[in-house]
Automatic annotation (TrEMBL):
Membrane disposition: Multi-pass membrane protein
Listed transmembrane segments: 106-128, 140-161, 199-222
Location relative to the cell: Membrane
Organism: Grallaria varia
InterPro entries, per database record: Marvel (IPR008253), Synaptophysin/porin (IPR001285)
Secretion signal span: none
Keywords, sorted A to Z: Glycoprotein, Membrane, Transmembrane, Transmembrane helix
Protein name, UniProt field: SYPL1 protein
Residue span(s) of domain MARVEL: 20-226
Keyword Cell membrane: no
GO cellular component terms, A-Z: synaptic vesicle membrane
Length: 238
């Protein structure tokens, strides 16, 4: 199919028509392109840190931080040691818990692929719209991709939303009971802060918006296919 489309468009000749962008099919594709960028950037560009205050017997209180970022392999993130000797050698390597890279990468990779597909689709709509309208195979292919994309946005968004909820738990105050070094005699740990994850919440919102957009896109593309025309003829027949 891919090579068939390339050959067909290559033989048809380029005919620029930017008025397509004012029509629902082209306009929605531009919005999908923009929203894919926001989904990608809001998740893939995040970096934060968790800070604890460690009190060791006989030494000044010190803060320790664990810096984490996309793709959120938290189990590879280590807290900086406050002073192993000052804590009587009780402070060992301490890591955050959990690996959420598969969920985060699924979401970001889909956003990147959708970004590229939207560019390709806009090139077809603007430069080869006459071919797209004349050959019924192109709208059917576009419809299949749109249905698959809407489904993948739905799955990836809910998977990422669940992972984000777990990330908040794994970087919040609940991590202290699981740190063995904080249980040593004369050593206490207090949760100080964690970087706000509002931008990650925004990424989930853009994921849901993409689900809605691509669901609407399915209907817009469907109206250009022979399936819709056949249904109209059947419904109008006596």
């Amino acid at each position: 199919w891919f090579w068939f489309l390339l050959v067909s468009f290559g033989m048809a000749g380029l005919s620029m028509d930017f008025s397509v962008l004012l029509e629902p099919l082209g306009f929605v594709k531009v919005i999908e392109w923009i929203f894919a960028i926001f989904a990608f950037a809001s998740c893939g560009g995040f970096q934060g840190e968790t800070t604890l205050l460690v009190s060791c017997e006989g030494v000044v209180n010190k803060t320790v931080t664990a810096v984490f970022a996309y793709p959120f392999r938290l189990n590879a993130v280590e807290f900086s040691a406050p002073d192993p000797k000052g804590c009587a050698g009780t402070w060992t390597d301490v890591h955050l818990m959990g690996n959420f890279s598969s969920s985060a990468q699924f979401f970001v990779t889909l956003a990147a692929l959708v970004f590229l597909y939207c560019i390709a689709a806009l090139v077809v709509y603007i430069g080869y719209n006459h071919v797209y309208q004349q050959n019924s195979k192109f709208p059917l292919t576009d419809l299949s991709i749109s249905v698959l994309t809407a489904f993948l946005w739905l799955v990836s968004t809910f998977v990422w939303a669940k992972a984000l909820a777990d990330i908040k738990v794994s970087t919040g105050a609940s991590i202290i009971p699981g740190i063995e070094s904080c249980k040593a005699p004369g050593t206490t740990c207090h949760f100080v802060s964690v970087t706000s994850m509002g931008i990650l919440n925004v990424s989930v919102v853009f994921g849901l918006l993409n689900v809605a957009l691509w669901g609407g896109n399915v209907w817009l593309v469907y109206k250009d296919t022979k399936l819709h025309n056949q249904w109209n003829r059947i419904s109008e027949s006596p």
